[in-house]
Specification:
This protein has 327 residues and is α/β, with parallel strands linked by helices. Helix content is 37%, strand content 30%. The chain binds adenosine-5'-diphosphate and magnesium ion (MG).
Length: 327
């Protein structure tokens, strides 16, 4: 069964525009100028129950706005959305009890109290039966290793500890659908990995449907097989992550280690020099000519070691966004 169906979803913002300078300010007092931002512009996708998908795109692409429409925080301009058969913006309690929305940049934990107090509050709000509450809490605390942390005043916790507790607060009522908006933002690499591992385990263990937005490719690469890419309010790709690589990667990366000095100028004859830091260099070349370029390097340069690689997924995505020819 489909957990989420989104059809022709549109959300436009009307923003007040002011010309620069004092004159602009004065003018805008007299006659307000508005501009329409098409934050979500005819978006369509469907998500199966139990799927974990990566929802990615550059800053301002429309990710958060989409999630707000899907969780009922925003009323869209037009379109159809169904989450577990509910219309989100009606916000009926049966819907709210089955979803969770975690935003990396916002917190729901009470700042001056230990996280445990927020957990207890949520127990009441969501009417979670005592035994179920304690069992779920115990499981989550163990998975996230925050036994002591939940008793400490929230304001005294590190960002990572706080995010772990935010996740617990959002998951205590065992939601079927999770919306995670940049859950690893601002975290150090180690903590990012911990949160990521948790999301993966959680998805497998509870078969919950998860939409994860992130601008860290690491998150998406590790977690999601399917990605939906949004740019300027429009879906530009929806499919398997591997497919992006084969469809869009029309170039290869040649990494070389030299055993004698070479100049960047000489290397430029072979391909675009992406990095040059003696003794190492990496070159970008068109896929069709990769082996030719490699043999040319071996023939004419003091090569110690050489590897032909797929370009990193980050590069491919960036290329997709900018639409520029990479090689
Ligand atoms: N409340 C708002 N009022 C006006 N414009 C907004 C508002 N929220 C977001 N936007 C604009 O809508 C676009 C999409 O924003 P957002 O959904 O936050 O993108 P993302 O989460 O992908 O970074 C951006 O151009 C942003 O500036
Ligand atoms: Mg956002």
């Amino acid at each position: 069964m489909k957990a989420i169906v989104v059809s022709h979803l549109k959300k436009y913002y009307r923003v007040h525009q002011k010309a620069p300078g004092l004159l602009g300010s004065l003018r805008s007092l007299v006659k307000r100028q508005y501009q329409t931002v098409k934050a979500v512009d005819d978006v369509n996708f469907q998500i199966e129950e139990g799927e974990l998908i990566g929802f990615i795109g550059p800053n301002g692409a429309g990710k958060t706005t989409t999630l707000k429409c899907l969780t009922g925080l925003l009323y869209p301009d037009s379109g159809f959305v169904s989450v577990l058969g509910h219309t989100p913006w009606k916000r009926d309690s049966q819907f709210l009890k089955q979803i969770a929305f975690v935003m990396g940049q916002k917190n729901q934990l009470w700042w001056d109290l230990p996280p445990m107090e927020t957990f207890l509050l949520n127990k009441e709000i969501y009417e979670i039966p005592g035994p179920q509450f304690h069992q779920t809490l115990e499981e989550l605390v163990e998975l996230l290793e925050v036994g002591e942390v939940i008793k400490v005043q929230t304001r005294k916790l590190s960002l990572g500890q706080r995010m772990k507790c935010e996740l617990i607060a959002a998951l205590l009522h065992q939601p079927k659908v999770l919306f995670l908006d940049e859950p690893t933002i601002g975290l150090d690499v180690v903590m990012q990995k911990k949160i990521r591992d948790f999301i993966k385990i959680y998805n497998q263990k509870y078969q919950s449907t998860i939409i994860l937005t992130s601008h860290y490719m690491g998150d998406v690469k590790e977690l999601a097989k399917r990605v939906i890419i949004i740019d300027q309010g429009k879906i530009v790709f929806d499919g398997q992550l591997e497919e992006i690589i084969s469809r869009y990667a029309d170039h290869k990366l040649i990494s070389v280690v030299f055993n004698k000095k070479v100049t960047k100028r000489e290397l430029k004859k072979i391909g675009r020099v992406k990095e040059f830091n003696y003794p190492r260099a990496s070159l970008v070349v068109k896929k069709e000519v990769a082996s030719l370029a490699a043999s040319e390097l071996l023939k004419s340069f003091p090569v110690e070691d050489l590897n032909i690689e797929e370009p990193p997924i980050e590069d491919i995505i960036r290329e997709l966004f900018t639409g520029k020819d990479y090689a």
